[in-house]
Amino acid sequence: MAAYQITCATKTSPCHIEWVETSNGRVWNVKKVRKALKKDRFYTSDAGGHTADVQKTRCLICNKKTIRTDPNNDTDNRLDNLPPCA
Ligand SMILES: [Zn+2]
């Protein structure tokens, strides 16, 4: 099992995340993240080091498969607060 910190998140449609980048410089599409979540951990971390785990979800607007942070860690989806990837 590996753990990856997501550092940026890109939406190519207006409503849900489709690409992320992890702190090791690797770029992932959401499909690959969802597949890797079977064995690996993805998370975000704020400036204070508070982490929130990433989990699978469906977009609330268009119902496409995507990812979000665990609502038990934070009520907001913290992936939405990350900057878009360059
Ligand atoms: Zn959507």
Can you offer a commentary on this structure?
The chain has one helix at residues 30-36, and strands at 3-10, 19-22, 27-29, 41-45, 51-58, 65-69. It is mainly β and 86 residues long. The protein has a six-stranded mixed beta sheet with strand order 3-2-1-4-5-6, with helices on one face. The longest helix is centred in the middle third of the chain and has 7 residues, at 30-36. The site of zinc ion (ZN) has 7 residues, from loops.
SSE string, helix = H, strand = E?
EEEHEEE
Q: Indicate the radius of gyration in whole angstroms.
A: 12 Å
Number of strands: 6
- Biggest sheet, spatial arrangement of strands: 3-2-1-4-5-6
Given the helix and strand composition, which structural class is it? mainly beta
The proportion of residues forming helix, as a percent range, comes to under 10%
Overall outline: globular
Q: Provide the low-confidence segments as ranges.
A: none
Distance from first to last alpha carbon: 27 Å
Query: How many domains make up the coordinates?
Result: 1
Compounds present?
zinc ion
Instruction: Indicate the mean pLDDT.
Output: 91
Give a short account of the largest sheet.
Answer: 6 strands, mixed
